[in-house]
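Hi Y.,

Following your request, here is the sequence exactly as I used it, all 179 residues.
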Amino acid sequence: MAFSNLVMFAIIVATGATIGANGNTTITSASQAAQALEPVAGGMAESLFALGFIGSGMLAIPILAGSGASALSALLHKDWGFTKSVRDAPFFYVLVGAGTLGGTLFTLLGIDPVKLLVFSALINGLLAPPFLVLVMLISNDRTLMGEYCNGRWAQVLGWCAAGLMTIAALLYLVLNFAT
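Below is the corresponding structure, written out as tokens. Let me know if you'd prefer a different format.
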């Protein structure tokens, strides 16, 4: 996860340095994003972008498919987790496979990956605040968590994160849909 965040940070910095420097702030396709890297990477821009895009996908696929499969399996009281064998947690592994194949199908159907990334980030950003609030309510409840209940700093930081995410989501909705 730390490596994934390091890659994400590098992508953000490289994007800001290249796209913002050229005055072009609108990217609508993967080829435009690759072309924006030309001032930094020269003739290797397209190859570098392709490797980065594939690499970030390789980092994200197991996390997204695994987390979704874990959540649904746990909700349905099925065994789950990559520490279990396929025989011990078949439902979990079917969900991981379905998620991976579903993501692959999106690319084969010609769906623009940049638009899909933006859309999925938008959905994640809008759904994260209520989930964070739920996590904070559960993790701060001593009757549910016992000795594992959040300490003071975890409560402060967790509620700050939930508040910031809520403000960001509300600002997005107001700025984009207020008439």
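Residues 112-179 form one domain.

Thanks again,
Q.
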